[in-house]
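Summary for the steering committee. One of the milestones for this cycle was to obtain a three-dimensional model of the protein with guanosine-5'-monophosphate bound, which we needed before selecting residues for the alanine scan. The sequence and ligand used are listed below.
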Amino acid sequence: MSDVEQCVFCRIVAEDIPALRVFETDEVLAFLDVNPLADGHTLIVPKAHVVRLEEMSGEMLSRLTSVIPDIARAVIAATSATGYNVLQNNGRDAGQEVQHVHFHIIPRRPADGLGYRWQAGKYTGARATEVQNLIRNALG
Ligand code: 5GP
Ligand code: ZN
């Protein structure tokens, strides 16, 4: 079976498996996450199969992300959330379980217990400028 044939989000796009759809264009589909972190947890996906964000052109990504404000506004209105997180994971080590690009809209409320703070580090010595130069050089 090809990547696309076995991809759960491609199967949702193709209506091969059901999903609770909330928004759709020619290129973009938004639907409720089947295992929500909160009521209204919504996923936004490109209809084309792309695994990771950096595989997309800037134009394709712009068209995908251009729907986020309207969907976020609607999710907030529908769920009376006071805030939301936009989460987008790339690669299994970053927690990406479904290998098809998706943005999470996760509604938040006071003391909802979800948390989000990660343990931040500190640069020592010349490491920050080394990393800065490595990234600048990689950008060419
Ligand atoms: P990831 O960890 O890859 O960023 O998130 C994948 C998300 O997709 C998870 O939150 C998971 O609950 C959701 N998900 C996985 N399979 C399905 C499915 O078949 N239908 C829906 N609606 N959501 C799914
Ligand atoms: Zn796919």
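Key point for the committee: The pocket of zinc ion (ligand 2) is lined by residues 4, 7, 9-10, 49, 100 (CB under 6 Å).
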